[in-house]
Amino acid sequence: MNKLADDCFNQVKNLMSTAEALAVLRQRIVAVTQDRLERLPLAQAQGRILAEDLVSNLDVPPHDNSAVDGYALRHGDLKPDAPSRLAVAGRSAAGHPFTGHVEAGGTVRIFTGAVMPDGADTVVMQEDVERSGEHIVIPPGLKSGANRRRQGEDTEKGDVVLARGRRLRAQDLGLAASVGHGELTLYRPLKVGVFSTGDELVEPGADLPTGGIYDANRQILMALVGGLGAQVSDLGILPDEAAAVRQGLSDAAEAHDLLLTSGGVSVGDEDHVRGAVEALGHLHFWRLAIKPGRPLALGQVGATAFVGLPGNPVAATVCFLRFARPLILGLAGAVDLEPALYRVTADFDYEKKAGRREWLRARLEHQVDAGPRAVLFRPMGSGIINSLVQTHGLVEIAEDVTRIKAGEAVDFLPFDEVAS
Ligand code: AMP
Ligand code: MG
After folding, report:
1. Is the omega angle on the peptide bond into residue 61 within 30 degrees of 0, that is, cis?
2. What is the distance between the alpha carbons of residues 264 and 397, in angstroms, rounded to a whole number?
3. Which of 189, 212, 260, 297 has most Cβ atoms within 10 angstroms of its Cβ?
4. This prediction's pTM
5. What is the pLDDT, as a whole number, of residue 12?
6. CATH superfamily of the 65-149 domain
7. Domain spanning 342-418, CATH class
């Protein structure tokens, strides 16, 4: 198995910006999934990562064809200033090409997607002609080449249509099909094990004792990891007990490329993840200048990557989306690791400390005469799961900004951009 270089998360710098942290991840992270490639039919490839440059076997469309239902003709036959009369000499339907040649003064009845008959160069829409018997009359003004789709206008034979490292979306599968590939060579899925930690946590559906809370993080994280095309294992809840945490992590390491935990990584007495990972490999707390989020714990259990996310569900989710997600995509072999941000208009005033990056949950409201307006969700606490549910994404505020006034432009990260 192709595992990580030893101690690849060792990071000396004391306080890192988000950009620095992402740059380090980009530099250090290598794909670990190249040891086994899979050939899979297109229907099983969505969300997976392409392990080859996919080359087109043909021109698409393979022939010039009609973009409309109408009549194929020779533009040179048309009078520029008066109606023209042409004789209908045949028919070309999708999948049933006309086999003859269009002679001067002739036209061929044609349907959308049908091959352009030999000799014809232009198509007139059926709505624009008058037909009487086996003739049509065409008003003047039709442009040469109108309504004709060119061979190869979408893809040319030999083009690389999808590059290695691409995470495959629905439309990518359609493109692969259109150029003749029924199967793709993919990296094997990254194997990710997800743990929760904490004695207070209870499986949803079970009775809740006094002091207990239901484990929400594991559902969020498993779904997010699965949405990235990885193979997720539900590894349950680790108790706040050093030996059990250590045993759980050590048992799981061999079978996974990455172990993901939430909770148990602050400095409280009940936070046992740190000691366990240190005993089994390396652990580094990356002190990131961010809110929400405690230090991000990154390390290795043996040669298996380890990420310890904060326990609070909002902090866990934000840290996952911004830091664990690119790490997972990189380990899995993807080339595009980071999401695009979009500019929206703040509907709020906000003040913050300089020097750290903040993420606020917000709903986007449509505005008729301007771009969308971001409305903050309150309360803003990092335990408020509803702040992730009743919103569309995260307003991301850069380190140097200290105040935002309503009406200003802010960066927005839509959940739809990163939650799959
Ligand atoms: P910790 O980092 O373990 O001290 O956890 C910080 C906060 O997050 C505490 O209030 C925990 O109860 C809460 N928390 C930790 N893990 C989870 C989880 N899996 N689901 C919901 N809340 C959690
Ligand atoms: Mg805890």
Report:
1. yes
2. 27
3. 260
4. 0.92
5. 63
6. Molybdopterin biosynthesis moea protein, domain 3. (2.170.190.11)
7. mainly beta
Task: Could you please state the CATH topology (level 3) that the domain comprising 18-34+188-332 is classified under.
Answer: Molybdenum Cofactor Biosythetic Enzyme; Chain A (3.40.980)
312, 318, 382, 386: which to mutate for ligand 1, most atoms within 8 A of CB? 312
Low-confidence ranges of the chain (pLDDT < 50): none
Residue 266 CA: which ligand 1 atom is closest? 2
CB 262 near ligand 1, within 6 Å:
yes
CA gyration radius for the chain? Answer: 29
User: What's the pLDDT score for residue 270?
Assistant: 72
CATH number of 37-58+163-187: 3.90.105.10
Q: What is the DSSP string of 195-250?
A: EEE-TTEE-TTS---TT-EE--HHHHHHHHHHHTT-EEEEEEEE-S-HHHHHHHHH
Q: How crowded is residue 177: how many other Cβ atoms within 10 Å of its Cβ?
A: 12
- 43-96 pLDDT, tens digit per residue, is 999 999 999 999 999 999 999 999 999 999 999 999 999 999 999 999 999 999
| Cβ(196) – ligand 1 distance below 6 Å | yes
User: Element (H or E) spanning 258, and its range?
Assistant: strand 258-262
Residue ranges per domain, the chain? Answer: 18-34+188-332, 37-58+163-187, 65-149, 342-418
* Burial class of residue 305 in the structure, from the number of CB atoms within 10 Å of its CB (0-12 exposed, 13-18 middle, 19+ buried): buried
